[in-house]
Amino acid sequence: MISLIEYIGITAGMLTTLSFLPQVIKIWRTRDVSSISLLMYSFFCVGVFLWLVYGVAMSSFSLIAANAITLFLAGCVLFLKIIIKDK
Question: How far apart are CA 80 and CA 66, in angstroms?
Answer without folding.
Answer: 21
